[in-house]
Every structure is written in structure tokens, then in C-alpha cells.
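Task 17 of the worksheet. Students: predict the tertiary structure of the chain below and write it out as C-alpha cells. Keep your answer in the requested format; marks are given for formatting as well as content.
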Amino acid sequence: GPDGIADIFTIPAKNTSVRSVAAGPNNDIWFTGYNRGVVGRTTAAGQINLFSAKVSKPKSKDMTLGPDGNLWFATNAGRLGRTTPGGETKLFKIKNKKKKPSALTVGGDGNIWFVQQSDKNGKKKKSSKKTLARMTPWGKVTEFQAKSGLRKSYGITTGPDGRIWFCDPERKRIGRMALNGSGLTYFKKGLKGTPISIITGPDNQMYFGEKEGRIGRISVSGKITEYPIPGAAGTKKFPVQGLTVGPDGDVWFVNDRRSQVGKLRLATGNVDCVNGVWNNLEACGWPGPAHTGHP
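Model answer:
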């Protein structure tokens, strides 16, 4: 809540790890089980309903509300899932079942765009570099050449320019593509680390998280500005895999390795923990600079 106190709700299914969450219609929150075949819906009051995901272990790491009013999610099983507000799920195959969909966004064309990480065994094949893809609401897939396997990429967004922007951790760069698949461009100048996640901000800029403890901003022209996370910048102890824009208009983020939440204040460029007390990191629930992240 606004006071920084979290409400915890128990999922009524044991060992249901959750790594993909999305706001759905009717102000409900939806999620996909990572290691259990369920799609869940919860109200703000914490009432949870579970539905079949049609796959035993989705291993889903992203979910989004589609333009059709349904929830779409990625699975490691070479499929995208579509769940109606009533809980009915249908799975759609991608063209190569060995590729792993890992990040989704809604394009300005009304389709679902996604990263499909290439399998390591196919890294020398030209087809393995067709790692950006588009799916229509009825399941038709078109693949696009990204000139990279995009392995370990969990970032894709529709930019303020209407183009698709995505992270390429494999080659430490950020990519851009037009909705018709043309104009593939990569940006590296100004990057100090490995971008793994990206969102569109409220100020016509995009914001990305790095594996090495930094938040970055990139303009539609490709200009990059970086903001270090105190006590973590330059290390791999604070990988920023989750980003979102909060109701205060700032960019909030999480540490993928520990239970930590922070935000980038857009007005000042300061990186803060939830209550802004950087002179006492422990009071914010963060480790001090000397022991940030895992030992």
C-alpha cells in the first residue's frame, strides 16, 4: 500500500511459484504458476480463484492484458497462453517449440509481440536468430530476424514512437524494430552493463534494468542515461528484472535475487528504497553496501 506495508495472500495450491503477474479487467490481478499448471485471479481483497493453464509446468515469466480483453502469458513449453476473464485457457503453438517465449508486450497493431529465446543447440543456425515474434489474437505467428539468440532476455515494450523495443543481454545492447519487421537497430553507446528488462515510462522515455545493479533510461533516438543503485552498481548482486511505473509516476523495480523494492525518482534521478532513507539502508529492508545481494 501507500504506507509501504505489503499484504500477503496465500495461494490455495502448494508449491505454486509465481513469476508473472498482470492487471486484468474488473480491477483483478492475474498470475500464472511457474511450476504448477494454474492461472490465478485475485481480487484486491485477496480472494483467489485458480484455473487450469492447460500445461503442467508453464514456467511462465511474463503475462499481459491483451487488446482483446484476455490475459496472455508466455510458457517455456513453446506456446503462448490466452485466458479469458472467466478462466478459460487456450494454448497457441509458436513456430519452433525449442524456442522459449519469455517476455510479452501489446503492439500498436493490436497484436502480441514477444521475445522467444533461442535454444543453445541452435545458436549457429540462421533460424535461431528469428527471436522476435508477433502473434495475432487468433494465434497466427510471424517471426522476425533479430540477429541474436536473445538468450536470458526478459524485456520487451512498445515505445512512445510505436516501435518495438527489447533487450539483448547476449550482446549487451538494446534493440528497436518497426511493426512491419523493418528497421532493426541496436544501441550500445552509454551502456555500462547488461540490459535484461525494459518498460515505457510516463515521460516518453523508456527505462531498463541491468544485471549489474543499475537502472537506465533510453530515448527514442537511442540516447542512454544510467542511474546506479547505491551499494550494488557494477556487481551482479542486484539484477533488475522487474520494472513498472507506479501511481506516483516514478519507476519502481525489484531485485530478482532478494526481496527488495526500490524506485527511481524521475524528477531528480535519485534511486531510493521504499521510504527514501538511504543513510540507513537496513531500515528500508535493504542490505548495506558492504553486503548487497547474496554472499
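Marker's comment: Residues 275-295 have pLDDT under 50 and may be disordered. The chain is about 0% helix and 40% strand.
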